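Prompt: I keep going back and forth on a fold encoding question. Comparing notes only helps if you start from a blank page. Show me how you would write down a chain together with its backbone fold. Please set it down just below, with no commentary around it:
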Amino acid sequence: MPDALPTRLTAPDPPPFALLHRGNRAVEVLIGSVVTVDAVADIPVGPSGSVALLPFRQLAERGLPCHDDGTPLRVLVADERHTVDLESLPHPTSAPVRDAGFTTTDAAYADLARRVRDEDLGVDVTHCLLRRDFSARLEPGAAVGLFAALLRAETGAYWTFAVHDGTRALVGATPQGQVRLRDGEVVLRPTCGTYRYPPSGPEEAGLLAFLADRKESDELTATVDAELALLCALEPDAITVDGPLLVPMGTLAHTACVLRGRGGVDAHRALAGTMFASTAIGAPLAGALRVIEAREPTGRGYYGGAVALFEPNGDLDAATLIRTADLDPSGRLTLSVGATIGADSDPDAEAHETHHKVAGLVRALQGPSHARPAGGGSSAATRDATEPDHTGTPPPAVPHSRTGTPAAPRGDVGAPGTTPHPRQVSGGAPVPPSTLRVAEALARRREEFGAQWTTPAGPVPDLGPLLVVDLGHPAAWTLAHLARRLGWRATVVRVADVDPARLPTTVLCGPTTDPRSRVARDRLRAVAERRGCRVHQVDAGFRPDAVRADPDALAELLGAR
């Protein structure tokens, strides 16, 4: 590290900077100037790259509902870039932490979760993540120290980072990769499910029970389906699904899948088209967002958005802004976390789950005595086995009997049951048992996935043109992708933009739960059938596009079998 760099970053008035630890022993330091832009397409790429902070309200670019709280899209345009060793960072020291705790009680959060479960879930919303906020007061200028502390206290993150834009700073250890573009390949990492280690460390019996839990499996599948639709909308030439697999972290492990698409997408389009990870929203995306807008009284700021590194060569690496502290100039820290509510949710357990989500930050705030040593092991001494109280103050980690609620993937990952990729484990993260029984449990979960997602496409006949009518459900793009695998030359057109005079012989109407879209669909169907077209329809309850669907389901629907 250049001798003057630590002094520059920890000065009372530092330049805008980013510290990025992306799964190896090095930390990237970017320094430059900050600009505010309106849209992802406007993000400039500096000579040394750019780091963009995308607020949750950026979803409005995609026409999706969200509170407009005015949080800006800020971009650090770097003209300096350094790579430094972890040991070169200032060593974290204990600092005063005041007024720490959740801003709402567990009882209030559980009541909200109960109302969402009982009143809001249905065909158009199967899962929804509800936010709550944890706050504390630190000394001003704490970003670099908190970053260094998180590197030692929270293991296994996809990114650990600090981005200071000249006024505020975001500091986090996020397990969720948003999107990566490298050498023409787009990668998404949907994740759902949390196995919380007991005080003695991860155990085979508990891990097997977690992997056999149908609720956990269904939540991951819903998340994969939602992000498959985003990837399909980018129209890559080919898509494959890897997983499910385990992503171990300091006090828990997650399940994840890796979605890969190849061909024809640039960095700005890849990021704009995948806003944002369903891990922090729910599924289906639009329905979950409507619930969030109705149930959360304020905007989310940057929570659930993304931090993205644009490279000068056109590559992109972005992480989801979860497990991320927002520090204002006065030292006020806000950390938003949440639990995903499904039909089988236990509201009290979901409230307890949020305590686990802040555990890494709490350990970091408590100082070096609670941090896991870099490269060291895990021990029971680093975990507090105390149950949370109901005043909103979490312990560093809270074991709980229920295994559940979504988290996030990180890094490149291998096949089910294989040894984790080096990016999956950093520092002293305890690795869950990699036994034959665990590998078999993961393989059984993978067997539920349709072959259309797990095997390459072979040669297919030309079945002719196919119009897929988009009725407002993202599954239209997934259906088009699968139809191309069968041999159709599929295009997707919004129902309002369909030209009745140019209809092909075969038309497929995507799913919808919107009564207005059903009316438009029925009108189009009547016109198309009068013109001699074959019109097929996907009802909301029938999902031939889902990752678990029979590979022949769509072919049978279209009469290609």
User: Anything to note?
Assistant: Confidence is low (pLDDT under 50) at residues 371-429. Residues 5-368+377-447 form a domain with the Anthranilate synthase fold (CATH 3.60.120.10).
